[in-house]
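Z., the sequence and structure:
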Amino acid sequence: MSKDRYISMISLGCSKNLVDTECMTTILMKDGYKMTDDITKADCVIVNTCGFIESAKKEAIDTILEVASYKKPHGKLSYIVAAGCLSQRYPEEIKKSLPEVDAVIGTAHYQDISKVVGSLFDKDKSDWMSYMGKPGSLEHMRTERVITTKSYAWLKIAEGCSNGCAFCAIPGIRGKYISRPMEDILEEAEYIASMGYKEIILAAQDTTNYGIDLYKKKCLAELLSKLGKIDGIESIRIMYAYINGITDELVREIATNPKVLHYLDIPVQHGDDEILKKMRRRDTVSSITKTLDKLRKEIPDIVIRSTVMVGFPGEKKAQFDNLLKNLQVWKFQCLGCFIYSPEENTLGYNMHPRVRKDVSERRYAQVMELQQEISLRYNEQRIGKIYKVTIDSISDDGIFYMGRSYMEAPEIDPVIYVVSTNRPLQIGEVVTVKIVECTPYELTGVTEDEFAE
């Protein structure tokens, strides 16, 4: 019966969620279901939700309601399944407030997705179904999974988080930190390489904590060394690193392993010691500065991106000013900023005094204005320089190719718009590009054929 059923998957939120979506897709296809990106042709839609902060919850709910407009009798769609983080946090609320949803499946039950879908189709009118459990599971991970990205592949090395930051709901949603066995990761990387992908991007809530639970020590450097020996993998990018996990061994591995890109994503969250302590971060301004200085000394061409948060309870003007001052010192090439969102079942939820919304929004604007200046200065220094650029897509107007050098991670960093009039370029192709123009968030370059003329 499953061979006649079409399933559509929608993945919201982070890259880790995308990997979970790809694993569910793999399970469904193995069990005979057909996948479609066209909701109008789908018999069932699975929305893998994010529920990390308020804006993510709203996006998930809005997406579910939009999908519901395709349900019978208005369309072909029979069932909607809400999976992932929002379902893990609020299963009863979804049942009560979103009757459009026919089943929920939490983060510990991704491996049961085929069973959920099958149960829905086994009945003409299914009762509400809830697959929930204590978060924290690697059972759904599949070595040979469907990969939906085109020029790179995410490689998830761990699940959950044990850091316990005061603002973060992830431990309650995803459970404690669980490292994947190294042999499983290496086997998956071999499969990714066999599929023709040359760039892998490591993902976890904290990649630098890899191995601490399984091998009783931080093993990211060892993992990078072994990944670097896999034929076909040419680039390894590290995301979601933590300052306190950047060991001397890791710095040496990044500096000396030719396949590890000189790029690190390190969310520091703030630039004031008192706020960092209230956030239950393990870093201080001094430790952040020391580590950044070491990275830039040992790896002069390294690119460091970060994220910070404004409006955390108790953040005073002087503490915010310290954040601005230290951002000017740290000078991240790229920076994301978030306004604090009070989340149930976190330590920060009951902290006071709260920062007024208008004050938080003003501080957010100040951070981004400062970062625009920093990013623009970095980008201006790149004009005239030559980079190897991976082509990811074509711009909507069809004029430019869009790509990345080692200095940009997909989706979050500036895009390089590439001009190539002499020949068409292929998605995934690596070309030599000279940067000719820039803004804080975009760069424009021409291919080697163009600037050689």
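The chain has three domains: 2-131, 153-380, 383-452. The CA atoms of residues 95 and 219 lie 42 Å apart.

Let me know what you think.
H.
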